[in-house]
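Problem 3 from the worked examples.
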Amino acid sequence: MIITNIESVPNKKIVEHFGIVSGSTVRAKHVGTDILAGVKNFFGGELGGYTDLLNEARQESVERMTKQASWKGANAIINVRFATSSITQGASEIYVYGTAVRVE
């Protein structure tokens, strides 16, 4: 599956359009991660636990979007965008969406 954030796939022609596809996941923080983040916040530095959590959430969302596009018969997803939203205290949604197409 070709995935791109631009309107087309370079050197390919869009021959079929399947519409919008999306994937999402909601993730909650872990108490242990929160404690370590509090310490890091005091001394400074990257909050690695949160970085890992967000990377996993993005990957899972993309996999779900890709599966949806495959079911429709697409071999590419164009105009891909990510969005995040807070669901509740300590939990966030990662949402990814794009346009499923078939290219040749």
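Problem 4, a separate protein:
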Amino acid sequence: MLDVNNKPIPSNGQADTELVDMNNFNSDLFRFLDASPTPYHAVQSQIELLESYGFMGLSESDCWTLKAGKRYYVTRNDSSIIAFVYGKDDRLKTGIRMLGAHTDSPCLKVKPNAEIISQSCLKLGVEVYGGVLLNPWFDRDLSLAGKVVYQDDKKNIKSCLINFKKPIATIPSLAIHLDREANKKRHINPQTDIPPVLMIIEDDADPDSSEYLKNSAPNTLKNILKIQLQKQYKDLSISQILDFELSFYDTQNASYVGLNDDFIASSRLDNLLSCFVGTQALMRADNECTSLLVCSDHEEVGSASTTGAQGTFLKSVLERIAGSAESLTRVINQSMMISTDNAHGIHPNFADKHDVNHGPVINKGPVIKVNANQRYASNCETSAVFKLLAESTQVPVQSFVVRTDMGCGSTIGPITATEIGVKTLDIGVPTFAMHSIRELSGNKDSWYLFLVLQKYFSHSSEVNVESL
């Protein structure tokens, strides 16, 4: 087996060499997280990694001529991506080894008519995207990123990515002197309490009047975006900004946390950690079997979109790989999907929120997620495959089942199993503070997950997925 640097992993358990490899892997993970504040940027980061390993871009609008042993990727809306190795072996015999994740994370998204003037401050109205844990968003150094659609000087409609990178906004807390019950009964109104503050308006006009904003072009969001894009792209020709999809994000970089660096702290660990690990594993897949990674947008809001797991993206790509509807049915019967999405690690301060026998521990390995009501798609067969893969790589495995008296979240796993009809497993790394602006995972678990998924994509693996 090869490590992340394509060097043999010692079988005699030499900890020092393995630790260096794990740290290199995590350092690359940090860079990926920092470069990917939105799904658009995450896909761009994945493309850069994939192209460095010989993957070639395809367009859905073109006719595809796939060649055995070659590597390809295709995107939809720049926010979802499918990458695959078109294997040399007959897919009717080997099936396709698939891996799924999602590119989106809970956040605050800017409204179309966002500008708000209040008490000489320029604010931007936002919508809550997904199940955001709102309290941690206060008093953070926020920046803005996303996608902008514009018209150039020749009247062509184009789009590009934008990222301010530096802190340009904050959501200041109300002082406890003005809310004595803040630590007991705090309620957050998402309409009035969380619009980020960008700047102080300094002008002779009445800064609280709506007319001021209409007549003050420098302080309108579209003008701010135009100025930033001209800084970001020196030769960009912009006649007018037509529209945008923008999200606020925390500018604090991913890092180790803990006296012994036991934890990884970052925004968007759910689920960019899985996107990164899956990309790294697919990059090192051999060319014998057909292997595929799909990273979909809009999982946090139900996946029902053109770019979500409930849309047509994956099925349409699989049909083109298989060649016909009948062939696809036969290939799917031989295939397996692993849905990778973070799991709830057992919180040391809230251990009673877990089933006592199913509380995953940080740095004790990836988690198989099980739910009798099919909120997760794992079954005994797909779980057995993963356990054998983990055993062959000497990686520990854990199980998660939600308390029977609590509701259970879900993933793209059940959706993909329903839409495609493929045998599916739900797994993830244990995480604290899921859906916070800053989440926490273990420094070993992403590495553990990579080792198993790399084995999953290996044709030489002694675990026969197709025998299910």
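Solution to problem 4. The two ends are 24 Å apart (CA to CA). Residues 50 and 333 are 28 Å apart (CA to CA).
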